[in-house]
């Protein structure tokens, strides 16, 4: 009798597996963290690194191309914002597509298309055509910009997800070192190639090649990786999801799922939804169904938290990317200042404007050189960002995500405001770095929050929309600086400080 009871007890898990299946996260717990997760983590990091290279890398290209394209501050702002506008225009579409057909194909194909367009842009001699090309690069790399977080997060159990997303974002810090280091190396070359009478190929055009290489490597790494089992389950493709998890188990621990007493995976509650790409060829019907699948984000219980997340994300990009695009430019002016007395940032900018106007009247030869100290200071900023990502992982564990974002943004707002009157150059660099680093660190943290706040079938769309609206902050921030900085410097820094402080207060309302 006892033996029969024991046999029944032992058979219960198996019966559960066959009838209901195991939860995907339960199986991940059994498999553990292994080589598959490491490869996906590194590949995802490289894709994120490419996105930062292609967007923030324009901060150097705007300087070194100013003589070729004859650009002023407004044109530089347009050039810098082009890729962000491209990301804004396509993020929702790629997010929807990643929920409809899967994360992996969107990541691979959008990255490769963006890389090809980036390669083509190096031979474009006309300013406006170059801007269009950068817009198209942004249009495609938007797929990697936001889908990466959803794809990466779905290979980890909820307990590890925030930390893993944070450490994948270490590659953002690596990018902020990589971009100035590559620019320093390339711009040290002194050669030119006359292609036509009106077009000379100069070293700065090679920068875009270096920028997209990490993304190309990341896409190649993903080719052999499986699709996210989580999204496959949400699409009702349970057999493919089981095969993907089986592959992960074999690679990680060398065992089949049936060795772990896992015979089936529990299907997602949303697996019966239609795929509009396969059931409709009418654009009107497709857009209606696209809206119908996205509308839950704008209804309870998601509306409040989703809207707050989007506004805060906009503030994060407004400061870290909007101001970050001008960081090398401002540092270049700071390092090129010949004044003997200590000056604030605004004093230096006003002096540089006066010098530029004097150069126009005296026909001085165009200068597109970057001060060596500007490279060093930007590399220092990148090192601070990497350190910040490492520290952030421990901070999140200790005080949580809400406090991390709120405190970080409050400190950043104080640093931005202090730049108005600080005259010591070393302190200026420290405050500037903190103002850019702290909101930048919060981007990945907030992306992880969005992933956790919505169900699987909405994650791709939610993260993409949130980051899409966040990128508008980059566009507005960059253009506001281009228009206001030289004429209303103090107001500019006050505006940036106030918006970041407002976002800190909003972040406190999120359930994290």
Question: Which secondary structure elements does this structure contain, and how are they paired or packed?
Answer:
Elements (H helix, E strand, L loop, with lengths): L1 H18 L4 H8 L3 H22 L1 H7 L1 H4 L3 H29 L1 H19 L5 H27 L7 H8 L1 H18 L5 E2 L5 E2 L5 H17 L5 H6 L3 H16 L22 H4 L3 H12 L8 H21 L3 H10 L8 H18 L9 H47 L6 H29 L2 H29 L4 H19 L5
Antiparallel strand pairs: 1-2
How are the strands ordered across the major sheet? 1-2
Give the overall average pLDDT: 83
What characterizes the major β-sheet? 2 strands, antiparallel
What is the overall silhouette?
A: globular
- Considering DSSP H and I runs of 4 or more, what fraction of the residues is helical? over 70%
* Strand-residue proportion: under 5%
Region (Disordered): 1-20
Keywords: Membrane, Transmembrane, Transmembrane helix, Transport
Main location: membrane
Pfam families: Sugar_tr
